[in-house]
Amino acid sequence: MGKGTLALRLVASDDRLWLSRSWTTRPRRANEDGSEYNFVERAAFEKAIDDDQFLEWAEFHGNLYGTPTPKAPDGSDVLLEIEVQGAEQVVNANPDAVVFLVLPPSMGHLEERLRGRGDSDDHVALRLSSTPHELAKGRELASYVVVNDDIDRATGEILSILEELRQLRRDPS
Ligand code: 5GP
Hints:
Elements: H1 3-13, E1 17-19, E2 23-24, E3 38-39, H2 42-50, E4 54-60, E5 63-68, E6 77-79, H3 84-93, E7 100-103, H4 107-116, H5 121-141, E8 144-147, H6 151-170
Bound molecules: guanosine-5'-monophosphate.
């Protein structure tokens, strides 16, 4: 299970986390129910860019993805599940942002997961070929690196880091 599932687990386990719902121009996959993204046409996405409605956005393998300016309840911590170009924009705009780089246990696992969700051979090859560059950029940006070897373990690891960070925020000394 990938980053999307991990993000859902995190918000289900932590009342103070608020998960942003991204916009994308990519078509919905057969195994998606439509709740995963706001699926939009490219023209609508480009208009939202012009209207300055995104905290960050990026083109990833030919499709646009973006985080609308978050409208999270006061006191919540905003969770974004995004790729590295977007993370770089968020960190530049908010140097306090905490970046978790979530890694598959191996490239073989990643390939298996992409194939398992029905990605085409071409798309799998494209994703795998760009991964080394994304990992290098991700390691530069990351505050924490978490290996998604087991979804429950990875969820627990991130939740306990969040608790430590909140403790530090309350009591910085
Ligand atoms: P997928 O097409 O597999 O759902 O997502 C492709 C990549 O886009 C994933 O790495 C995902 O984390 C990333 N992504 C999803 N939403 C956003 C977003 O709002 N902004 C950016 N920059 N990346 C996103």
